[in-house]
Specification:
The structure holds two protein chains of two kinds. Chain A has seven helices and six strands, in the order ββαββααααββαα. Chain A is α+β, with helices and mostly antiparallel strands. Chain A folds into two domains: about 45 residues; about 160 residues, Butyryl-CoA Dehydrogenase, subunit A, domain 3 (Up-down Bundle), CATH 1.20.140. In chain A, strands 4-3-6-5 form a four-stranded antiparallel β-sheet. In chain A, strands 1-2 form a two-stranded antiparallel sheet. In chain A, helix 1 runs antiparallel to helix 3, helix 2 runs antiparallel to helix 3 and helix 3 crosses helix 6. The longest helix of chain A is centred in the middle third of the chain and has 30 residues. Chain A is elongated, with a radius of gyration of 23 Å. Chain B is mostly helical. In chain B, a hairpin with a 2-residue loop joins strand 5 and strand 6. The chains are: A alpha+beta, B mainly alpha. Chains A and B meet through strand 2, helix 2, helix 3, helix 4 and helix 5 of A and helix 1, strand 1, strand 2, strand 5 and strand 6 of B.
């Protein structure tokens, strides 16, 4: 395919974030609207760095109570046992279904933590104007966007367990406060990944190594 | 502006943009300007600099996703109206549906979590399918009215929040965990919940938003403007 040596920014052109049409904005300061779909034009996602940092830090704060507080409280014959996320993983491992334990460990503990670290790494790379390694960072943001949703797994597990096991006074399960913090981590990291603009990673690349 | 071969010249980009077939595009991942080649059936183009997918050419970008959307909508209704699974222990029985699960979360003091579950498992997929149905039906007779673009944009925003595949895995993990304590039975809804992720993935693969945008009437009925420098 044709290898080009120019970015849209070099020519003062802007891609519509909604419909993908390339157009010339009304002016540099007030870009105006896309002529095809009418959405507001932005050269880059508005305040991408600040918004992504804010959402990532908020998610990192919620990550602590999400893991420390119980997500489920099981009551059997009057005695209540609180369970954290790690407690649920340990239960699955010890009860013989280690493949499921592994899935929950990856989805609920490793993916949220990995997402927080990956987004912070990308933001620092943009802010320090790092050159080189853009392709690796691009793969990282794509991976973060692709697998981020799987962290919702534990929310669904807790919901269906709570919904089904309501046989008081024999046995019942109540949701714990950890669930809402865990949900907040998932939603905030998903929003952070969307608000990041990958074009910022490339804006300082001199475009010399793009010829096929 | 740049005369050497293989580089985009301004008038090339302009001509390509007005001849709507092969428009000049800027990569959404890295902003590199390029002219898309003519795509064969089922082809996809990636950006040579950052690897982002720039365009796909599904064989039949309207009728096929429309058929799949109708099927997915029926399956979603079945998954939401029939019990997902039942439980029996010591002569007592219980069963649950998707929204029933969200509602229990809500009534047990976790209103936010209940709302999140309802959105990700039922509301977002339902609204996504509804918008897709409207978009794909309206676009069969071009030119499509501008509201098609609005609904397509909303459907795009909803897509990341519709997670039937995550819900299915969550259901299976919950089944295994509860099976330690009581007898668990799979309901009709569980099979519907199993079919839904497959159908939604098939819609995503067979659909091409670019093909819809080409058929949408421009805001204010403008003709495509030239993009050359003023």
């Amino acid at each position: 395919m044709t290898s080009a040596g120019l970015t849209a920014a070099h020519l003062g052109l802007t891609t519509c974030a909604t419909c993908g049409l390339l157009s010339r904005p009304a002016s540099d300061t007030v870009p105006g609207h896309c002529p095809r779909c009418g959405a507001s034009l932005h050269r880059r996602h508005p305040d991408a760095i600040q918004r992504t940092w804010a959402l990532t830090i908020a998610a990192a704060i919620c990550y602590i109570p999400a893991n420390a507080l119980p997500v489920m409280i099981t009551t059997v014959a009057g005695s209540a046992t609180p369970d954290t996320i790690m407690g649920g993983v340990v239960f699955l491992f010890t009860s013989g279904s280690w493949p499921l334990g592994l899935i929950v460990l990856i989805a609920s503990v490793l993916i949220p933590l990995g997402k927080l670290l990956a987004i912070a790494w990308l933001l620092i790379a943009v802010q320090r104007r790092a050159l080189g390694g853009e392709r690796a960072r691009m793969r990282t943001i794509r991976l973060v966007r692709l697998i981020g949703r799987w962290s919702m797994l534990d929310i669904f597990v807790d919901t269906f367990t709570v919904a089904l096991v309501q046989l008081a006074p024999l046995m019942s399960v109540q949701p714990g406060l950890g669930v809402v913090f865990f949900g907040a981590v998932v939603v905030l990291t998903m929003l952070a990944a969307e608000s990041f603009d990958p074009r910022l990673l490339w804006d300082r690349n001199p475009l010399e190594s793009t010829h096929d | 502006m740049l005369g050497t071969d293989g580089k985009i010249r301004l008038d090339d980009a302009d001509r390509a943009a007005s001849a709507s077939r092969q428009p000049a595009v800027a990569c959404p991942g890295c902003d590199l300007l390029q002219c898309l080649p003519r795509l064969g059936p089922s082809a996809r183009v990636r950006c040579p600099r950052c690897g982002e997918v720039l365009a796909t050419a599904p064989v039949d970008p309207i009728e096929r996703p429309l058929a799949l959307t109708v099927a997915a909508a029926i399956v979603l209704i079945v998954a939401n109206t029939t019990p997902l699974m039942g439980l029996a222990v010591a002569g007592r029985a219980a069963q649950t549906t998707i929204l029933g699960g969200a509602l229990t979360m809500w009534s047990q003091g976790q209103a936010l979590t209940g709302a999140l579950v309802a959105i990700c498992a039922a509301i977002a997929p339902g609204a996504y399918l509804l918008f897709m149905l409207a978009v794909l039906t309206a676009v069969r007779r071009p030119p499509a009215p501008p509201w098609v673009g609005t609904l397509l944009r909303l459907a795009g925003h909803l897509q990341p929040w519709a997670m039937p595949e995550v819900m299915l895995l969550g259901l299976l993990v919950a089944l295994v965990k509860i099976a330690e304590l009581a007898t668990v039975t799979a309901g009709v809804g569980l099979y519907a919940a199993g079919a839904l992720p497959v159908l939604l993935a098939a819609i995503a693969v067979s659909f091409d938003p670019g093909a819809i945008w080409e058929r949408v009437t421009w805001v204010g009925n403008e003709t495509p403007p030239r993009i050359a420098p003023r």
